[in-house]
From TrEMBL:
<feature type="binding site">
    <location>
        <position position="250"/>
    </location>
    <ligand>
        <name>Mn(2+)</name>
    </ligand>
</feature>
<dbReference type="InterPro" id="IPR054691">
    <property type="entry name" value="LeuA/HCS_post-cat"/>
</dbReference>
<dbReference type="GO" id="GO:0030145">
    <property type="term" value="F:manganese ion binding"/>
</dbReference>
<feature type="binding site">
    <location>
        <position position="26"/>
    </location>
    <ligand>
        <name>Mn(2+)</name>
    </ligand>
</feature>
<dbReference type="GO" id="GO:0003985">
    <property type="term" value="F:acetyl-CoA C-acetyltransferase activity"/>
</dbReference>
<dbReference type="Pfam" id="PF00682">
    <property type="entry name" value="HMGL-like"/>
</dbReference>
<dbReference type="Pfam" id="PF08502">
    <property type="entry name" value="LeuA_dimer"/>
</dbReference>
<dbReference type="InterPro" id="IPR005671">
    <property type="entry name" value="LeuA_bact_synth"/>
</dbReference>
<dbReference type="InterPro" id="IPR000891">
    <property type="entry name" value="PYR_CT"/>
</dbReference>
<feature type="binding site">
    <location>
        <position position="214"/>
    </location>
    <ligand>
        <name>Mn(2+)</name>
    </ligand>
</feature>
<dbReference type="InterPro" id="IPR036230">
    <property type="entry name" value="LeuA_allosteric_dom_sf"/>
</dbReference>
<keyword id="KW-0479">Metal-binding</keyword>
<feature type="binding site">
    <location>
        <position position="216"/>
    </location>
    <ligand>
        <name>Mn(2+)</name>
    </ligand>
</feature>
<dbReference type="InterPro" id="IPR013785">
    <property type="entry name" value="Aldolase_TIM"/>
</dbReference>
<keyword id="KW-0963">Cytoplasm</keyword>
<dbReference type="InterPro" id="IPR002034">
    <property type="entry name" value="AIPM/Hcit_synth_CS"/>
</dbReference>
<dbReference type="Pfam" id="PF22617">
    <property type="entry name" value="HCS_D2"/>
</dbReference>
Length: 526
């Protein structure tokens, strides 16, 4: 079986599914996710632009701020329907209408709990009272606005007979969209579909309404439940960017949009969302809400289009379809990331070095690969800069290495003096010493001086740079020695700064010896 890239698929049937985004209402209900007025406007503008059909912009009765946000979003929206939430209360509905009425296409969304738990414990209302409330509030809303959405909160834990009766009451009172919320993320795909089928079969007039599905992710099934509802007849999915929302969140917009696109062969439905804006929307919402996106989040996570393991990278270099079912461009990313790390292989390393301008033959690659693996064992991720450092150090230390650092152990901390135990290989023989210093680098340099006396040479420059970010970053160290006007620079890179410093020092010393030999051959120790 092949998995063609999304845009090559010819849909058998294109039933349109409306995308209802509630990032600014249910998403913002997530503890700690409050957004500023400006951030909400920017998000709404993007959602409108990218083809979201309905934007639930807020809960106008909740606060002045929410009211202002919904009113301003209603004014700015060009294409989307702008919706506000209201309880089954005349005051909520009037306030909601005051905010959404500025929109070209306004909608009032009103709801009431229908499950036994909600009726008895939250509302203290009988079934009859709930039904009366539905009639009174939905008809009031319908007198204000043509587009009315009604939701039986906690629908999936409501008795089937009462759910049917409540929905029938709302439809008779003028609701045009009936939303079925799985308020506490309790349902499973089979049941989600069965509820929609059951309602379509039993509720008179429901076939004239749009049926919506609103799923929460408490058991990690929100996307699956939403898609199952669509297969059973729902034609509106309620969702949020990055799956932001109450508790474990809502159905993630990016997941349903891409699932319907990629698996159009088995779910022949389309949405109006421009999927190439998904990454932009994800980043905007993550930053506004202050909720970073988990690395392995479907579609928009940092690793959703990244590969570190050699076998996958090799496959990707040969054909991107081997390990990806979507192209990064489909969701607004520039390219797949082949991240180099301890699981990577020679193909990916060779490819990356080529991108960085190093054309190496197989023997050279084999050599670099050994050092690359050694580095990768010590570092979570090997960045481009790490590889450049690796290649440059290789080039600068290749020739005339009479002195090599074999081992180094330093003791440092608050109690001085710091000490270094160093073994240098000098002209093929091991030499060992112990030295102290003012800090670990000084102690290590003193140890080098003890083994290779070079009193005439002066340390002119000592520079340390972190190649990348993070405490496991490689340090590149440059050391410059000067002796009677002759200058020799040495470099080294290592995740251990003292090791990098000592190797850079020794590298400079090797070069100095070469320069000495060129002018007048001398013994190794000055
Ligand atoms: C599943 C959901 O996402 S529902 C939406 C949840 N979102 C929010 O609650 C965010 C915004 N909410 C708020 O700002 C406040 O809760 C307000 C302004 C709406 C109400 O504040 P308060 O009047 O202080 O009431 P409070 O929030 O403490 O309690 C909720 C009240 O609404 C009632 N209520 C709850 N849902 C509904 C409903 N759908 N229709 C009518 N009344 C409802 C409760 O029974 C309770 O009433 P009570 O005071 O008679 O017991
Ligand atoms: C207001 C309703 C639709 C809701 O968010 C829920 O039940 O989860
Ligand atoms: Mg909800």
């Amino acid at each position: 079986m092949t998995t063609p890239s999304a845009d090559k698929q010819a849909p058998a049937k294109q039933d349109r599914v409306l995308i209802f985004d509630t990032t600014l209402r249910d998403g913002e209900q997530s503890p700690g996710a409050s957004m500023t007025h400006e951030e909400k406007l920017a998000i709404a503008e993007l959602l409108d632009d990218m083809g979201v059909d309905i934007i639930e912009a807020g809960f106008p009765i909740a606060s002045e701020g929410d009211f202002e946000a919904v009113s301003d979003i209603a004014r700015l929206a060009k294409r989307s329907v702008i919706c506000g939430l209201a309880r089954a209360s005349i005051g909520d509905i009037d306030r909601c209408w005051d905010a959404v009425r500025h929109a070209k296409r306004p909608r009032i969304h009103t709801f009431i709990g229908t499950s036994p738990l909600h009726r008895e414990h939250q509302l203290s209302m009988s079934k009859e009272q709930v039904l009366e409330k539905i009639t009174a509030t939905v008809s009031h809303a319908r007198n204000l606005c043509e587009d009315i959405q009604w939701s039986p909160m906690d629908a999936t834990r409501t008795e089937e007979d009462f759910l049917c009766l409540a929905i029938e009451t709302a439809v008779k009172a003028g609701a045009t969209t009936i939303n079925i919320p799985d308020t506490v993320g309790y349902t499973a795909p089979g049941e989600s579909a069965q509820i929609i089928r059951m309602l379509l079969e039993r509720v008179p007039g429901l076939d004239k309404c749009i049926i919506a599905t609103h799923c929460h992710n408490d058991l990690g099934m929100a996307t699956a439940n939403s898609l199952a509802a669509v297969e059973a007849g729902a034609r509106q999915i309620e969702c949020t960017i990055n799956g932001l929302g109450e508790r474990a969140g809502n159905t993630a917009l990016e997941e349903v949009v891409m699932a319907l696109r990629v698996r159009n062969d088995i779910m022949p439905f389309s949405t109006g969302v421009d999927s190439t804006r998904l990454m932009q929307a994800s980043r905007m919402v993550a930053s506004a809400a202050g909720f970073p996106v988990q690395f392995n989040k479907a579609i928009v996570g940092k690793n959703a289009f990244a590969h570190e393991s050699g076998i996958h990278q090799d496959g990707m270099l040969k054909h991107s379809g081997t390990f990806e079912i979507m192209r990064p461009a489909d969701v607004g990313l520039n390219a797949t990331a082949l991240v180099l790390g301890k699981h990577s292989g020679r193909h990916a390393l060779k490819n990356k070095l080529k991108e960085l301008g190093y054309e190496l033959g197989d023997n050279q690659i084999a050599d670099v690969f050994v050092r690359f693996k050694a580095l990768a064992d010590r570092k979570k991720e090997v960045y481009d800069e790490d590889l450049v450092a690796l290649m440059e150090v290789e080039a600068s230390s290749a020739a005339n290495e009479r002195i090599r650092v074999k081992s180094l152990r330093v003791v440092c901390g608050t109690e001085g003096p710091q000490t270094a135990d160093l073994v240098l290989e000098i002209d093929g023989a091991d030499h060992e010493t112990h030295a102290t210093g003012d800090g670990p680098v000084d102690a290590a340099f003193n140890a080098v001086k003890a083994l290779v006396p070079h009193g005439g040479a002066r340390l002119q420059l000592y520079q340390v740079h972190a190649v990348t970010e993070g405490t496991d970053a490689q340090a590149t160290v440059t050391v410059r020695l000067e002796e009677e006007g002759k200058i020799a620079s040495g470099q080294s890179a290592d995740t251990d700064t003292v090791v990098a410093s000592t190797k850079a020092y020794v590298n400079a010393l090797n070069k100095l010896i070469v320069r000495r030999k060129k002018s007048a051959p001398q013994a190794l120790s000055a």
